[in-house]
Design brief:
With 1751 residues, the chain is mainly beta. 7% of the residues lie in helices and 33% in strands. The protein has 14 helices and 132 strands. The strands form 47 sheets. Strands 1, 2, 3, 4, 5, 6, 7, 8 and 9 form a nine-stranded mixed beta sheet that branches. The protein has an eight-stranded antiparallel beta sheet with strand order 32-31-30-41-40-39-38-47, covered by helices on one side. The protein has an eight-stranded mixed beta sheet with strand order 52-54-57-56-55-58-59-53, with no helix packed on it. Helix 6 crosses helix 8. The protein is flat, with a radius of gyration of 62 Å.
Length: 1751
């Protein structure tokens, strides 16, 4: 019953509680809860259970986006049932949108109760990257929620993007009031739930390294609640895509670690960490778990793009590591211990056949450890680029991967990062053709004809500096206007290459290739030739090429544009954009309608093309490096398609990112041009003369260097077997300047012709009668029936063949010449090769096409087709085996009929004329020297040298490099009638078969006369000498000795002694030569030889110690007085001598008083004159005068007594000391009145003021009864002004008779001047006027600048300040009437000639009272303040004034009050305060006895008064710092003191006035300073002993006189520059010194007569030239190591020994020339190859057994 009552009671209470609320709700329902107060959102897709993936796949439904939602109140409904916003995080891609919005309740928050409203926050969930965790609250939106009882309404606003508000179905129960929850519970969705711990922030994973281990750190934020713990879980993504938990741990920290150990966690794993929190007091309740984003541990490759076009551009590839790279073991040898090297490789489908499709800037990447930032710990950047390969390979995918890492670190070892794939989109290249007259086909395939002549832009890239200029000349027609290309120039960046034959006439000139670039090694240019020079191809790094098919009329061109130029070309080749309609365009890009206007648009004005000049701004950028990093088989070359090499080594090149391939066999001749920067100089016929203003050089004028390095170039033509190219290569160290290159331009007349007018339409038949049908038939037979058209028919389109046939017909119609039938076939060859390269993937299907391109016309049946072209049968040659090759050359004549004068002509080369000469590598000349032995000519060993091919009828041979001046082994008497040399010359095309011989005769025209009759006969000219192989005329001297001469009557082959030789001639000697005792006699003798040879002096006799140099210099130190004779001889080179003597008179030295004699250098040598160098204290010419040391007076006031280099002083009264400069202190004897102070002065003294009540001068004082005496005695200002200044007491001295010093008015205006004899100035000045202060000479206002009055000696009298007296006050005065302020009392002081300015008191002087008392007309009252400060002033009955008593401690009359000191102040002291004495200014010390000078006095100067120095004799200046010498020191001497000079080196004397010259100046030199001689022109050296030769003497020659050299033996000439070798140096050696030759490289021996071969010649071969062996019969090769079969081993036979062939299977015969057919050929068939029969016409089959009609 009790329970029931309690229950009823609770229910009543509850009803009571609800009833008022219900009534209130019914009466006041919020407006947003009523119908119409809110809108309804009832889209069922907003449900949290609806996945948005269906919306993505459906085309009928779009995402729900609330970004355009109108702000307002909304109610959610799902299928007409109330719904509410979820309060927990919703998965991404739900609620019909990608970013669902849910209601986020913070800790402690709950939904509102019935009719309540609350401001809450909504969150939008979003996922940043696929595979990473979602962020539940990426965006925040404020939302207001109202509880309407049965449902909720929400105040919503538009979202920030495409987001949507979510809804979930509500429970059947309506929202109710929140029940009260316990302390550990919270209200959630109307229910009480256990309180949840706060959710941590999203964890972040980073990598860290500790020692050698790598850890992953999971960091997360949380509230600062210290009662929280955390649970951290680690997981990774399995290969199947499932998350595998690795580790779970509990921690109190906001981070956790896990080791990347390589076992549980490895590189390459995708790792996650999650965290949740719990309260430490209730650990079983965990909060929501938050997971991190995915962390990838390892290395990632991040390319800039994943799909590129085949355009050659560079793209970036980032290599990043999210984990710190390992460090190597600590080693001192490792520069970068924390660096990881990665090997990159590329691979793609069919790369073994098609080559790499992608290249990298490096195949090796180095990752260095650094700080981890934004999840990246190491980063490296490389570049990749698509390879331009010209294949039609569609879009290929290349994989860039990293090789497995090999290291000792267990974590990294074996790790291979994930590769990336790059797709390369294929972009086709384009070709442009300019053939024959020319017919042009543009890049886009549009054909047209260009009959104009001149220079044109054929192809120009607007994307890069690349352009092709062509020149066209008239060719092949006398009726119609036709033109052909005769040359082109290509510019690629800084590389300019020309291939040109326009410098001449058609059919006569030959093309030459020149490179105008300074450094071809930095470019990617390749130059190749095919078909023995008929095709020349220049390929560039971009993939572009220009190919010339050469003929005698000019050339046809094929141009290839790389894919990178697509849409960026202009010129005659069109626009290359796939649209032929816009190919005819202007330079600005406008489309032109008329063809002539288009052609004229691209014609270049004369002188503006690359033919004429090279732009000065050309520069070749540093080439990039491209690496082929293929890991699998890599194609090694275009030729070896069937042979590939497996290699992991990368191949890096600077030659462009292009895969250059060819099918036609090529010979790479790029190396021939690496060092060539010079155009061909010479060749070709003359053009027209240049017009004014043009370069006047012709090809003949442009001669090459003196010895150009010339050789034939390997471009060979098929026209009559003649070479059509020439080439000259300079040294690799030589380059051409811009002016040099421009100098190679030539006059091209076609540039100056007007554009050709359009001819009348072409008509048939041609002038020769050829009809159109005949022409078509012939062209069809030649073109369509050619091997290239038949063999390549499957690749060539019918339209191409038809177009080529049409070109052929047009050529015949224009030229009317059958030789043009084959001119267009190269177009088919080039087009066939292009298409075969494009179809590289189908190469196996076109093996027969390969054979057609490799072997033109299938070798014409005269050879066998191989991988490298035709292998011709014996007797046939050329690239297609169409030329007979076994023709032996023939010599018809030699240049100049075989005679060559070595004295007049260059006999190093000889031109040979004949027929059958061929341009081949084996073309050579053989020389056999004839020696004259046993009165007959015998043959020496043959020597072969390469020949220079000129044409089929002429070539040039260079004579063997050996001495050809004298016939070796010939008797000199008989040699005069024989030539210098006779050589037999033969020519060989192949090095085996030689022509007939012709004789070349070399002779010396200066000595011999040679004539050609049946035999060459040489005779010696009249009056000639033939000595050592050189010719001299009669009377010619020996170059090295004038004593020898050519005398044919005496000997024609040796030097003869000169008959007349004059002895040397001495120059006139002085009559008397003199010297002095003890002096150095030096004299230069002069002599000359009439023949000009050097002379040599020799002393025959003379006094002891005398010497004579070979050059004639006499030296002797005299020791006795007398006349001495020196006898000598002068000898020339021919030992002819002249004898002579000189006499020298020696006199005594007359210098006095110990002086020494020195030579007077101002007089001529040998004069005997001298100078005396005096000792100190003497002077005069002979030092006879004793110097008066008393001048100037050193004793000053005393009397000086002179002594020997000294003096002494007698001082006056009052002075003492050595120079009377020390003052006697007279005050010691106390001469003044008792109690009166004594002031000592220089040489005197004066006394102070008498005591009060006394009068006098201080020395004698008497009592005074005058009234003024009792008013202050001399302190009275009136008396001070009216009493004249005190006359100082001075010691008696004689007065000067000179004018008074005061007559010059030296003092300041208004200051009295007093004459004083005790001061150096002779006067002193009185005090300065009122208001001024100073020393009397110089007065200035207080605080103002100085007012100066000119005068002599500075001296000052210091006036007192505010004192009643103007005379100086004694410093020792003890008068009780001392002033209250101490005056700056300084006594007048006498000074020397220089007195330092004293220190003056700058305090203001007040003399008002003094002036008023002084002037009787002035009336002074108390209004004038006449009393001392502090003293009252009382007016008197008389209208004057009366001053009261002075204050205590002061005394005075009231007008002047002075401090009173009980005891008398000492000297230099003043009573400044009552009973206080202080030092007067300028004094210091314990009793103020020391005067102070600042700065201190120097040089023993004495400070006699404040700032006044007394200087000793010889010094002056304020501080005695200036020493003075009178007269001054000369020649840089320094005045030390007392007229004492210290002299520099080389000068003596009291004033350094005497110069001492220690050298004897020879050859007319003059001594201008000590040890310095001024030489005459042509002489130099310390004593002018050495002569000057300009230019200098060489080879040890001695310059004996100005510009005259004395040569040593073996040399002669003006500079001794010509060495004499009795046997001349051979082989270009230079005679360096007597009989010593300097040999050029490749020669050795005393006369350079032996050649050097390294290694040595084998098989008895002889070294005949530098590294050139002359082989014995049967051997050949550079070292005679290759056996020779006189008849070459053919068909692969091997020459095992001389004339011994080893034949391969299928061949036999001595030369393996006979093929072996196992079955005999029938019906006249010929066995031409092993088991291959060449059948007669009408038969076929293996053995020619079958008739053709039976086939």
């Amino acid at each position: 019953m009790t329970m029931g009552l309690e229950t009823v009671s609770k229910l009543l209470t509850w009803v009571v509680f609800l009833l008022p609320n219900a009534m209130h709700a019914q009466t006041e329902l919020p407006p947003e809860c009523v119908s119409g107060g809110h809108s309804i959102l009832q889209d069922p897709y907003r449900s949290t259970t609806f996945s948005s993936s269906w919306v993505q796949q459906s085309a009928l439904q779009e995402f729900i986006c609330d970004h355009s939602l109108s702000p307002g109140w909304y109610q959610f409904q799902i299928f007409d049932k109330p719904a509410s916003m979820p309060t927990e995080c919703v998965e991404v891609n739900h609620c019909g949108t990608q970013a669902p919005v849910w209601l986020s309740l913070a800790e402690g928050e709950a939904l509102p109760g019935p009719l309540e409203v609350r401001q809450l926050m909504a969150c939008a969930a979003w996922q940043l990257f696929p595979g990473t965790g979602k962020d539940c609250c990426m965006f925040r939106i404020p939302v207001t929620v109202r509880n309407c009882g049965d449902f909720y309404v929400y105040l919503l606003q538009p979202t920030q993007g495409c987001m949507a508000y979510c809804a979930q179905e509500m429970s059947d129960t309506s929202p109710a009031a929140s029940p009260s929850c316990g302390p550990d519970e919270v209200h959630v969705d109307g229910t009480c739930k256990t309180k949840q711990p706060p959710t941590p922030s999203a964890p972040v994973v980073v990598s860290e390294v500790a020692g050698k281990s790598v850890f992953l750190k999971c960091s997360f934020g949380s509230s600062s609640n210290s009662s929280l713990g955390y649970v951290v879980a680690w997981s990774r993504l399995s290969p199947e895509g499932r998350k595998e938990e690795l580790k779970q741990e509990t921690t109190l920290q906001t981070f956790a670690f896990i080791e990347l150990d390589g076992f549980n966690l490895r590189l390459g794993d995708k790792i996650y960490c999650s965290s949740s929190s719990f309260f430490l007091d209730s650990p079983n309740i965990r909060g929501a778990s938050v997971e991190s984003l995915e962390f990838f541990a390892g290395i990632r490759l991040r390319p800039e793009v994943s799909s590129v076009s085949e355009d050659g551009r560079l793209y970036e590839l980032l290599v990043e590591s999210t984990v710190p790279v390992p460090c190597l073991e600590e080693s001192s040898s490792s520069a970068e211990p924390c660096t990881l090297s990665l090997q990159l490789s590329t691979s793609s489908k069919d790369d073994g056949l098609l080559g790499a499709d992608l290249s990298l800037s490096s195949c090796m990447v180095h990752l260095s450890r650094g700080p981890c930032t934004d999840g990246v710990c190491s980063r490296a950047l490389i570049h990749f680029s698509p390879v331009t390969d010209f294949h039609k390979d569609s879009n290929r995918t290349t994989q860039i991967s990293v090789e497995s890492i090999v290291t000792q670190n267990s974590l990294w070892n074996g790790y291979s990062p994930e590769p990336v794939e790059i797709t390369v989109k294929d972009v086709p290249s384009a070709f442009c053709y300019s053939f024959t007259d020319p017919h042009i086909i543009t890049f886009d395939g549009r054909p047209y004809e260009n009959y104009q002549v001149g220079t044109f832009v054929l192809y120009k890239s607007t994307l890069r500096p690349f352009e092709v200029h062509v020149r066209q000349w008239e060719c092949g027609s006398v009726v119609h206007a036709t033109s052909c290309v005769c040359g082109f120039v290509v510019r690629d960046g800084g590389d300019v290459i020309a291939f040109d034959m326009c410098n001449g006439e058609m059919g006569e000139t030959k093309p030459h290739l020149s490179v105008k670039n300074r450094d071809l090694t930095k470019s990617g240019i390749r130059i190749t030739e095919s078909y023995q020079g008929r095709k020349v191809t220049i390929t560039f790094s971009s993939g572009a090429f220009v190919r010339a098919d050469v003929s005698d009329w000019g050339m046809s061109l094929t141009l290839r544009a790389p894919s990178s130029d697509r849409g960026h070309t202009e010129g005659l080749c069109g626009t290359y954009n796939g649209q032929p309609a816009d190919d005819l365009h202007s330079a600005g890009g406008a489309i032109l309608e008329h063809l002539p206007a288009f052609i004229s648009e691209w014609r270049l004005p004369p002188g503006s093309s690359l033919f004429d000049t090279v732009p000065s701004h050309l520069s070749t950028p540093s080439p990039r490096k491209y690496c082929n990093c293929q890991s699998g088989p890599r194609l090694t070359s275009s030729r070896a398609r069937s042979r590939s090499v497996t290699s992991t080594d990368s191949f890096c090149s600077h030659h462009g990112n292009v895969n250059l391939q060819s099918v036609i066999p090529t010979l790479d001749v790029t190396a021939e041009y690496i060092s060539s920067v010079e155009l061909l100089k010479g060749g070709g016929s003359d053009r027209q003369p240049l017009p004014p203003g043009q370069s006047s050089q012709t090809p003949q004028d442009r001669g090459s260097n003196s010895q150009p390095r010339e050789r034939s170039f390997s471009l060979r033509a098929s026209i009559d077997g003649a070479s059509i190219h020439r080439y000259i290569s300079n040294s690799s160290h030589q380059s051409l300047s811009q002016s040099d290159l421009e100098g190679f331009s030539y006059f091209f007349p076609e540039d100056h012709e007007a554009a050709a007018q359009t001819d009348s339409p072409l008509t048939w038949p041609s002038p020769s009668g050829l009809t159109e049908q005949q022409a078509r038939t012939q062209c069809q037979q030649v073109v369509a029936g050619s091997s290239i058209a038949l063999g390549c028919g499957r690749l060539l389109e019918e339209a191409i063949i038809s177009r080529v046939e049409a070109m052929c017909v047009t050529d015949l119609q224009l030229k009317d010449d059958q030789s043009w039938l084959n001119a267009t076939l190269p177009l088919l060859e080039n087009e066939c090769e292009r298409r075969l390269i494009e179809e590289r993937s189908r190469e196996e299907e076109f093996e027969d096409v390969l054979a057609v391109l490799k072997c033109p016309n299938l070798c014409n049946g005269n050879g066998q087709c191989s991988e490298w072209g035709c292998v011709c049968f014996p007797g046939f040659g050329s690239y297609d085996c169409s030329v007979l090759s076994d023709q032996i050359p023939e010599i018809t004549e030699l240049e100049k009929e075989g005679l060559c004068d070595v004295r007049q002509e260059d006999c190093s080369t000889i031109q040979v004329y004949g027929q059958g000469f061929k341009d081949s590598y084996e073309l050579k000349c053989e020389f056999v020297k004839e020696k004259f032995e046993d009165w007959q000519w015998v043959l020496d060993e043959p020597q072969s040298v390469p020949a220079v091919f000129l044409d089929t009828t002429a070539l040039e041979c260079k004579l063997p490099l050996e001495d050809s001046r004298g016939p070796a082994g010939l008797d000199l008497e008989t040699a005069s009638h024989r030539p210098l040399a006779r050589l037999q010359i033969k020519v060989s095309n192949d090095g085996y078969s030689y022509s007939n011989a012709k004789i070349l005769t070399l002779y010396d025209g200066a000595c011999q006369i040679c004539t050609l009759d049946t035999e060459v006969l040489c005779t010696l000219r009249e009056k000639r000498c033939n000595i050592d192989g050189l010719c001299y005329s009669e009377g010619d001297p020996n170059p090295s000795s004038p004593c020898l001469t050519c005398r044919p009557d005496s000997s024609k082959h040796t030097w003869s002694i000169a008959e007349k030789n004059e002895p040397p001639v001495l120059q006139s000697l002085p009559f008397h030569l003199r010297s002095f005792l003890g002096g150095d006699f030096i004299y230069q003798l002069q002599a000359r030889d009439p023949e000009g040879s050097a002379v040599r002096f020799t002393l025959e006799s003379g006094p002891e110690g005398s010497s004579l140099s070979p050059d004639g210099l006499v030296r002797w130190r005299t020791e006795t007085t007398d006349t001495h004779t020196l006898q000598f001889t002068v000898t020339d080179d021919c030992d002819t001598e002249t004898r002579a003597s000189i006499q020298v008179f020696v006199h005594s030295c007359e210098c006095l008083n110990g002086a020494s004699c020195v030579t007077n250098t101002n007089l001529p040598a040998g004069s005997g004159e001298y100078l005396c160098v005096c000792l100190d204290g003497f002077k005069g010419e002979r030092c006879e005068v004793d110097v008066d040391d008393c001048k100037p007076n050193p004793c000053r006031l005393g009397r000086c007594i002179d002594g020997s280099n000294s003096f002494s002083c007698i001082c006056p009264a009052g002075m003492t000391g050595h120079t009377c400069r020390e003052d006697t202190d007279e005050c010691v004897s106390q001469p003044c009145f008792p109690g009166v102070g004594c002031n000592n002065t220089l040489g005197s003294f004066f006394c102070g003021v008498c005591p009060q009540g006394y009068s006098g001068d201080g020395n004698i004082c008497t009592r005074c009864f005058h009234p003024f005496c009792f008013q202050g005695n001399q302190d009275s200002p009136l008396k001070a002004l009216m009493t004249p200044a005190r006359v100082l007491k001075v010691s008696s001295r004689p007065k000067s008779s000179s004018p008074s010093p005061c007559s010059r008015r030296p003092c300041h205006p208004g200051v009295q001047c007093f004459q004083r004899t005790h001061v150096s100035a002779g006067f002193i000045c009185g005090p300065c006027p009122a208001g001024l202060h100073g020393n009397g000479r110089t007065c200035k206002a207080t605080g103002q600048g100085t007012i100066t009055r000119g005068g002599d000696g500075p001296f000052q009298i210091v006036k007192s300040n505010s004192s009643k007296e103007t005379t100086p006050t004694s410093s020792s005065s003890s008068s009780p009437a001392s002033p209250r302020r101490p005056p700056d009392s300084r006594r007048p002081e006498a000074t020397m000639s220089s007195v330092r300015r004293g220190y003056f008191d700058d305090r203001k002087t007040n003399l008002t009272t003094v002036l008023k008392v002084e002037s009787p007309s002035l009336h002074v009252t108390c209004a004038d303040s006449p009393c001392s400060p502090g003293v009252p002033c009382e007016p008197t009955l008389t209208g004057s004034f009366k001053c009261s008593r002075c204050p205590y401690g002061y005394t005075g009359d009231g007008i002047i009050c002075k401090a009173v000191c009980r005891y008398q102040c000492g000297r230099n002291m003043a009573c400044t305060l009552p009973n206080t004495c202080t030092c007067m200014e300028g004094y210091t010390g314990y009793n103020c006895h020391i005067a102070v000078c600042r700065p201190d006095c120097k040089n023993q100067g004495r400070c006699v008064n404040p700032n006044v120095c007394e200087c000793p004799a010889g010094y002056s200046g304020p501080t005695c710092e200036e020493a003075s010498c009178e007269p001054p020191c000369q020649h840089g001497g320094t005045c030390l003191a007392r007229n004492l000079c210290t002299c520099p080196y080389g000068y003596v004397g009291p004033r350094c006035e005497i110069m001492v010259c220690n050298r004897h100046c020879e050859n007319g030199g003059e001594c201008i300073s000590p040890d310095v001689c001024e030489c005459q022109p042509g002489w130099y050296g310390p004593t002018c002993y050495s002569a000057v030769c300009n230019p200098v003497c060489l080879n040890g020659g001695t310059c004996i006189r100005p510009n005259i050299c004395a040569c040593p033996g073996g040399f002669y000439g003006s500079q001794c520059q010509i060495a004499v070798c009795s046997q001349p140096c051979k082989n270009g050696g230079q005679c360096m010194r007597n009989n010593v030759c300097s040999c050029p490289e490749g020669y050795t021996g005393k006369r350079c007569q032996r050649s050097v071969c390294e290694p040595m010649c084998m098989n008895k071969g002889k070294c005949v030239g530098p590294n050139t062996c002359s082989c014995a019969s049967g051997w050949t090769g550079m070292r005679c190591n290759i056996p020779v079969c006189l008849q070459k081993c053919k068909n692969g036979g091997e020459c095992l020994g001389p004339n011994t062939c080893h034949c391969p299977s299928g061949w036999e015969g001595l030369q393996c020339q006979t093929p072996v057919c196992k079955q005999r050929c029938l019906n006249g068939g010929r066995c031409v190859l092993p088991d291959y029969c060449y059948c007669r016409r009408g038969y076929k089959g293996f053995t020619c057994a079958t008739k053709a009609s039976q086939a």
